[in-house]
Design brief:
Blueprint lengths: L14 H23 L17 H19 L15 H22 L2
């Protein structure tokens, strides 16, 4: 199982480590598609490597990609990963927990 690896310095307010997290997340999404293709399963993907200056657009396409993945795999849809204020410390950490659990669910469905 690949499980998303959180940078050791990923703490609220550390922009550099969050950008590393975003890149790792995008890489995992690509790994899932590669694994799914071996079973002729595919889904529409989006560019997730760059969060840009305003995260709302990234959060929207990220949510859609998670929905596409869970639909293609025939598993329960994702929680709301889009409605979050990443500048709010409590919401930031809650989002990380939800997101990590979602990645674990997908990896389990893919047998990773």
């Amino acid at each position: 199982m690949t499980n998303i690896v959180l940078p050791s310095d990923l703490v609220f307010g550390n922009e550099h480590s969050f950008l590393e997290f975003v890149a790792q997340n995008a890489y995992e999404h690509k790994q899932w598609l590669t694994a799914a293709l071996t079973s002729n399963i595919t889904w529409q993907t989006f560019p997730l490597f760059d969060i840009g200056s305003e995260p709302s657009g990234w959060l929207q396409v990220h949510q859609q990609e998670h929905l596409n993945i869970t639909t293609a795999l025939g598993i329960n849809g994702p929680p709301d990963l889009q409605t979050v204020d990443l500048k709010n410390e409590e919401q930031f950490y809650q989002w990380l927990l939800l997101h990590t659990a979602e990645h674990q669910k997908i990896e389990q469905a893919l047998g990773l």
